[in-house]
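Table S2 (text version). Query chain:
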Amino acid sequence: PKPAPDMLFKCVADLGVDPGRTLFVGDAESDYQAAQAAGVAFIAIGPETSAPRRVDELRELPHHILPADGGR
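Corresponding structure-token output:
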């Protein structure tokens, strides 16, 4: 169970992605702790974590993960 990072290690391994290029979005302090332990970037939704990066609603997320030009 979280905050153990096992699920994140499994996800990045199964998907074949670099943990350093992975983003975990969560709403709990245990999500943030798991991301830190796995070396994965984290953005919190809502005020329930101590994470420095956060959004209040999912619709705000693209502004935090996409380049200003939309990737063009």
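Notes on Table S2: The chain has a mean pLDDT of 90. The longest strand covers residues 41-45.
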